[in-house]
C-alpha cells in the first residue's frame, strides 16, 4: 500500500457512518436492508457510503436476488492495519 492509497482510506474513515458500517460488517456479511436498520440514514445515503467504501476496496458487494450483500475486504483491511502499524511502531 502506498501513501496515496492509505490517505484515501484514512479520509473514508473520517466519516462516523462509514466507521459504523465497517464495525457492523466486522461481524460478517450484511445486506443493505440490515445496515439500514442499524443506521439512521436513507437508502440513498447508504448507497453513497457503500459506493465510497467499495471503490476504495474496504468493502466487497455482491448481488443476492434483489438485495446487495456487503462484507469487509479482509486483504485491504489487513494492508491498512499493517501500514498504520508501521506508522505507530516503526518498521524495525
From TrEMBL:
Among PANTHER family, the record links this protein to:
ARSENICAL RESISTANCE OPERON REPRESSOR, TRANSCRIPTIONAL REGULATOR, ARSR FAMILY
The signal peptide here is: none
> In which domain of life is the source organism classified?
Bacteria
Q: What is this protein called?
A: HTH arsR-type domain-containing protein
Record keywords: Arsenical resistance, DNA-binding, Transcription, Transcription regulation
**Annotated Gene3D superfamilies:** Winged helix-like DNA-binding domain superfamily/Winged helix DNA-binding domain
Domain HTH arsR-type positions: 1-92
According to its UniProt entry, one GO biological process term is: response to arsenic-containing substance
One Pfam annotation, family name?
Answer: HTH_5
Mention one GO molecular function.
DNA binding
Q: Which NCBIfam families match?
A: HTH_metalloreg
- Keyword Kinase present in the record's keywords: the answer is no
Amino acid at each position: 500500500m502506498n501513501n496515496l492509497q492509505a490517505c484515501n482510506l484514512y479520509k473514508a474513515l473520517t466519516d462516523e457512518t462509514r466507521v459504523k458500517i465497517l464495525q457492523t460488517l466486522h461481524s460478517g456479511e450484511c445486506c443493505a436492508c440490515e445496515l439500514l436498520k442499524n443506521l439512521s440514514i436513507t437508502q440513498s445515503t447508504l448507497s453513497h457510503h457503500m459506493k465510497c467504501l467499495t471503490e476504495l476496496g474496504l468493502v466487497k458487494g455482491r448481488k443476492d436476488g434483489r438485495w446487495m450483500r456487503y462484507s469487509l475486504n479482509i486483504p485491504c483491511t489487513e494492508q491498512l492495519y499493517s501500514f498504520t502499524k508501521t506508522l505507530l511502531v516503526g518498521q524495525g
